[in-house]
């Protein structure tokens, strides 16, 4: 029997069930709606990325076109291209056939004749211009070769010109006379380094207990090695005194210059008879000198000397301190797991490479490189007019100051070691250059193997400045042009430092030359109880403490460039425009002699400019107190307004040489005294320095002051030698790696054109009423291949 009460209960249960079903249905509906929205958004976003609309048609997006900018890479047909492997091999065989070198095997002793470096010998300019401009004959390609002649008596170094290459008629022309370059003035190379290591083995055995007790149980040569590149090997060419310092092993079986140890000495190492070499002048914790290792060890055992003891386990942590890898002990930054912004080429490359000739947006030039002097460009033209004949990196000088017994007064001239790196892996993908860049190989002669090597050295690409080259907003319109430029870049490593040389070509005729420094710092040992420092245990006169036992040694980097300007022709003049402040009469008297100030001037003071034409060769320095504009002009070529056409040389922020004239190295490095020097061009004045002068500073043979010999430079073929740089006071932020620091200079059109030189490019323009609108060409939407390889054509 169904009661009224049970009916009510059943109805309530039914209503409860229906309500639950409705709630469940609503939840399912909501979930479906959310999932549908997510799927819809995903599909929509994916279509945005992978397709574009044309009318009502949706088409899938394809990979961006991979146009090949390389027409051909026949370097041997170019006057200026770097030597090829085949050419280097030919040159070596020619020298072997003429008994100038003894073998093409790896050299094993100093009493052998072998090649230390080889690179293109640039053609004579007059002959090159006839070939380039007047359909003259191809003058051929030549090599410049440095030969270390240990088998001659007396031994020396010779330089030769070999060529023309490619045929059977090559000749050998000596560029120096026997004995001109003393054997002891040569740069260090692998054979000598091996002999220097042999020379200290006995001393390291004598000092074994000192080394173990002081340096965390270190054993030579298992844990430590010696560093021999501690500045000049001799003040005079006849000398050869090699200072050495020991340190822990670092990367790739090389010494760790960040963890050097306070034990040093000197090797008397002249000539080729290594049996006559000996060690002397030992220091420990800057205490000495001790005449030999035994005397030092005796003093150490008798406790007559202050000692150092590194903390236990220290030697096993040095590599991790310096190794450039993300510190796993630190949390990642927010969103660092996502890829950062990148550039790509939506319409393929807009530059071409034919041999060593590069063309882009009105610019044309030839690329070259030397293993000693680095990256060069020749015959640079814009819109058909030659602007520069040669723009070349020439020298890098690094001057250190620290309190280390073997390292005070260190000066490196990096062209002595070679500015073009010989590392097999030079270009770092997505670090040095974007994925779409073209990478070119250059050759490097190995003195160690007596064979040429070919390495990825230079990358070329168009860059997006992501900024306006020009812009203007007005009531009636808005207009502008996006800044894009061509980059030619050469990263290189010289010891602990890495340099990035590059040239930027802009749409308006500007040409930037920049160089950056990065890598890891060269330190000295930090001695907390050094009696030469005060109570402040954080710094010395030579730098800050940056690690447990390391002090960052202060230094500067000075970069010298050869800028052979040819504004329209080789007949050029150098002018100074001086930026002045003074009275109104002072301003007018720069052109006319007036006695009364015109009445329309509000003040009696103004700014004005005055001009000076340099009559004779001169070196100049920048000064904040006296602002000057440097221009190279062609007095015979005028623009539409009757003004001589020219180019300005404008350095970026730079440093000045602070060494005094009393410093013994300054004559050999005289280019560092100036920011710009102007000389009359000569074929025998190719470089700012000699690669041998750092080891014969008492009598340098090739430096800028010798070129500044007061010749007339009016309407002449001029070379401007531009020097830029920066000082570096290392801090803890330089550990483990120094982030990039940049300097350089700009070559800027100066009345070279009749107006702004970019209005042959399609720009952005929109009128205020939106009736008139133009924009850059737009490529179809595409995506860049994620793992596109560098220059498969090279």
Automatic annotation (TrEMBL):
Coiled-coil regions, chain positions: none
Domain Copper amine oxidase catalytic positions: 344-756
PANTHER family documented for this protein: AMINE OXIDASE, COPPER AMINE OXIDASE
Taxonomic lineage of the native organism: Eukaryota, Metazoa, Spiralia, Lophotrochozoa, Mollusca
Catalytic residues of the enzyme: 414, 497
Basic and acidic residues: compositionally biased ranges: 321-330
Gene3D superfamilies named among the record's database cross-references: 3.10.450.40, Copper amine oxidase, catalytic domain
Modified residues (2',4',5'-topaquinone): 497
Keyword Transmembrane helix on entry: yes
EC numbers, comma separated: 1.4.3.-
SUPFAM superfamilies with a match to the protein in the record: Amine oxidase catalytic domain, Amine oxidase N-terminal region
UniProt KW Cytoplasm keyword: no
Entries under InterPro entries matching the protein: Cu_Am_Ox_Cu-bd, Cu_amine_oxidase, Cu_amine_oxidase_C, Cu_amine_oxidase_C_sf, Cu_amine_oxidase_N-reg
Listed GO biological process terms: amine metabolic process
One function term, GO molecular function aspect: oxidoreductase activity
Cofactor binding notes: Contains 1 topaquinone per subunit.
Organism: Sinanodonta woodiana (Chinese pond mussel)
Name of the top EC class for this enzyme: oxidoreductase
Entry-linked Pfam families: Cu_amine_oxid (PF01179)
Name of the protein described by the UniProt record: Amine oxidase
Keywords: Copper, Membrane, Metal-binding, Oxidoreductase, TPQ, Transmembrane, Transmembrane helix
Domain of life the protein comes from: Eukaryota
Transmembrane spans: 21-43
Post-translational modification: Topaquinone (TPQ) is generated by copper-dependent autoxidation of a specific tyrosyl residue.
Similarity comment: Belongs to the copper/topaquinone oxidase family.
Cofactor(s) listed in the protein's UniProt record: Cu cation
Ranges for region Disordered: 321-341
């Amino acid at each position: 029997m169904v009661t009224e009460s049970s009916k009510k209960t059943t109805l309530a249960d039914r209503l409860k069930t229906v309500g639950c079903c409705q709630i469940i249905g609503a939840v399912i509906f909501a979930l479906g709606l959310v999932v549908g929205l997510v799927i819809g958004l995903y599909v929509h976003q994916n279509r945005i990325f992978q397709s574009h609309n044309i009318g009502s048609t949706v088409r899938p997006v394809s990979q961006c076109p991979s146009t090949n900018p390389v027409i051909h890479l026949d370097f041997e047909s170019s006057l200026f291209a770097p030597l090829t492997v085949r050419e280097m091999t030919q040159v070596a065989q020619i020298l072997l056939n003429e008994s100038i070198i003894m073998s093409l095997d790896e050299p094993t002793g100093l009493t052998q004749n072998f090649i230390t470096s080889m690179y293109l010998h640039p053609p004579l300019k007059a002959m090159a211009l006839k070939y380039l401009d007047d359909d003259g004959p191809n003058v051929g390609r030549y090599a410049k070769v440095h030969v270390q002649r240990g088998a001659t008596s007396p031994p020396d170094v010779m330089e030769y010109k070999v060529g023309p290459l490619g045929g059977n008629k090559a000749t050998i022309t000596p560029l120096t006379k026997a004995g001109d370059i003393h054997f002891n003035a040569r740069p260090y190379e692998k054979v000598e380094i091996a002999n220097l290591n042999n020379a200290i083995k006995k001393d390291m055995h004598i000092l074994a207990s000192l080394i173990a007790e002081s340096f965390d149980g270190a054993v030579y040569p298992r844990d430590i090695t010696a560093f021999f590149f501690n500045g000049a090997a001799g003040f005079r060419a006849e000398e050869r005194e090699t200072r050495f310092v020991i340190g822990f092993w670092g990367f790739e079986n090389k010494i760790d210059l960040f963890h050097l140890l306070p034990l040093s000495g000197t090797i008397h190492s002249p000539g080729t008879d290594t049996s006559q070499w000996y060690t002397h002048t030992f220091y420990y914790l800057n205490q000495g000198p001790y005449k030999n290792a035994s005397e030092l060890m005796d003093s150490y055992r008798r406790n007559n000397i202050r000692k150092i003891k590194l903390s236990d386990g220290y030697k096993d942590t040095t590599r991790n301190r310096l190794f450039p890898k993300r510190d796993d002990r630190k949390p990642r930054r927010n969103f660092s797991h996502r890829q950062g912004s990148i550039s790509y080429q939506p319409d393929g490359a807009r530059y071409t490479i034919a041999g060593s000739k590069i063309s882009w947006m009105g610019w044309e030039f030839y690329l070259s490189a030397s293993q000693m002097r680095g990256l060069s460009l020749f015959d640079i033209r814009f819109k058909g007019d030659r602007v520069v004949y040669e723009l070349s990196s020439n020298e890098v000088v690094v001057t250190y100051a620290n309190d280390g017994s073997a390292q005070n007064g260190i000066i490196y001239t990096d062209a002595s070691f070679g500015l073009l790196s010989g590392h097999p892996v030079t270009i770092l993908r997505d670090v040095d250059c974007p994925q779409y860049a073209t990478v070119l190989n250059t050759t490097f002669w190995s003195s160690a193997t007596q064979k040429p090597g070919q390495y990825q050295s230079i990358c070329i690409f168009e860059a997006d400045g992501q900024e306006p080259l020009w812009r203007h907003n007005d009531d009636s319109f808005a207009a502008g042009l996006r800044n894009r430029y061509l980059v030619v870049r050469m990263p290189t490593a010289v010891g602990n430092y890495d340099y990035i040389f590059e040239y930027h070509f802009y749409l308006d005729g500007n040409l930037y030359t920049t160089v950056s420094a990065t890598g890891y710092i060269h330190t000295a040992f930090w001695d907390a109880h050094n009696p030469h420092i005060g109570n402040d245990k954080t710094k010395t006169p030579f730098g800050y403490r940056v690690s447990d036992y390391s002090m960052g040694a202060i230094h500067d980097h000075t970069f010298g460039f050869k800028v052979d300007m040819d504004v329209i022709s080789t007949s050029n003049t150098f002018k100074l425009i001086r930026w002045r402040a003074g009275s109104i009469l002072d301003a007018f008297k720069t052109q006319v002699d007036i006695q009364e100030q015109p009445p329309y001037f509000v003040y009696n003071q103004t700014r004005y400019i005055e001009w000076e034409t340099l009559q004779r060769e001169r070196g100049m320095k920048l000064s904040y107190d006296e602002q000057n504009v440097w221009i190279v002009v062609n007095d015979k070529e005028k623009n539409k307004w009757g003004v001589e056409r020219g180019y300005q040389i404008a350095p970026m922020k730079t440093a000045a040489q602070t060494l005094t004239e009393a410093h013994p190295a300054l004559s050999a490095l005289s280019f560092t005294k100036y920011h710009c020097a102007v000389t009359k061009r000569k074929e025998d004045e190719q470089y700012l320095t000699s690669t041998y002068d750092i080891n014969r500073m008492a009598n340098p043979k090739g430096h800028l002051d010798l070129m500044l010999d007061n010749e007339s430079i009016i309407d002449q073929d001029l070379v401007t030698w531009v020097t830029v740089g920066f000082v570096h006071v290392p801090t803890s932020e330089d550990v483990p790696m120094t982030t990039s620091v940049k300097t350089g200079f700009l070559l800027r059109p100066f009345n070279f054109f009749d107006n702004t030189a970019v209005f042959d490019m399609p720009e952005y323009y929109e009128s205020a009423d939106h009736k008139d609108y133009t924009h850059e060409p737009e490529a179809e939407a595409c995506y860049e291949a994620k793992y596109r390889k560098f220059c498969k054509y090279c």
